[in-house]
Amino acid sequence: xxxxLDDKTDSAAKASGFDARLNSVEVEVIHLFVQFAGxxxxxxxxxxxxxxxxxxxxxxxxDEFIERLNMSKGSTSQGLxxxxxxxxxxxxxxxxxRRTHYESVTELRKVAGRFLRQxxxxxxxxxxxxxxxxxxxxxxxxxEQRKHILERVKLLRRWExxxxxxxxxxxxxxxxx
Length: 177
Hints:
7 helices; mainly alpha; 3-stranded antiparallel sheet
């Protein structure tokens, strides 16, 4: 099922920038994940890797991503590490093959929960010191600008407090770890 099914599929794969080693279903699924990842500000390569794994009926090794997605070894390696750290993929044992193989984790609760912890909660921690630095630099501004910026810093701190209060409930609803 890994080869191109017909001429129409071949041209669709080439038009979308993928090698002809993907079938039309794989191309569509990968595009779906690329669009979703783009809306979350995530790298295209990560979405391509996850999309291919998501629709694969068997675990895949790194060299298969490199070949089928026409990716560099470095980009593939980074994408696999990121997805593994996120809990979106896991390694699996394949008998008689010494390569590391991967499969997708399809439990949305686990993936979304870890993403929120790693991306959003971590951002809150970084923001606190940054907001302090911003407030400390207002002495160089006009009185009008200074008042405006200090009000905005207060607003951002309120948003942060609200986010910190709400996020644990969201994680609990997702059945977070």
